[in-house]
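Worked example

This section walks through a single chain of length 194. The input is the sequence exactly as stored; nothing has been trimmed or padded.
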Amino acid sequence: MQNQPMSGGPVPVHSQRPKRRLSFGVKFLRIEMFTVLLGVALLLVAVALYAGLASPGAESKQINAKEYQAVFLTNGQVYFGKVTDLNSKYLVLKNVFYIENNSSSSTTTTPNSNYTLRKLGTTELHLPEDAMVVNRDTVTFWENLKDTSQVVTKINEYYKNPGAASTTPSNSTTQAAPSTTPTTTPATTKPVGQ
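Given that input, the structure is written out below as tokens.
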């Protein structure tokens, strides 16, 4: 009767619940699933960072810093200058020029004859600085300009002779730009050479 369990005594702990051991295959499957899920999560994070951060930098690398750029806006206006900063929110343009239409409704001439290239800050009443910060939502597109373009040629002519009255193409006729300097001199100044 020694092999019979005692009816009134305590039951040993190891016999209450048998210990379940996971097989090697199940353990391996759990580790493998964890590794796959972690890898997929890291891959998704890497793709999101690349898509979010690489795009603006890729476009700004297209800027040829030695050349001028043309920036076309959604309202049809075009500005010429050097793009110095470009990101997803704004574009900074320096050494800014723009085209002014000098056409009168009574005359019909060649397409390029009624336009004048103006330097920003020289003829405007409010005299802005020679830089623009343009909201990217208003930019249709921008492009690098070649040195041989008519616009760049006129810009270079302007910088060789900034005192010239007009930066108009040679085949056009324009009116003189309004002067921002007073036409009279104070009585206290002496003419040059006296």
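What to look for: The beta strands are 69-73, 78-86, 90-101, 115-119, 131-135, 139-144.
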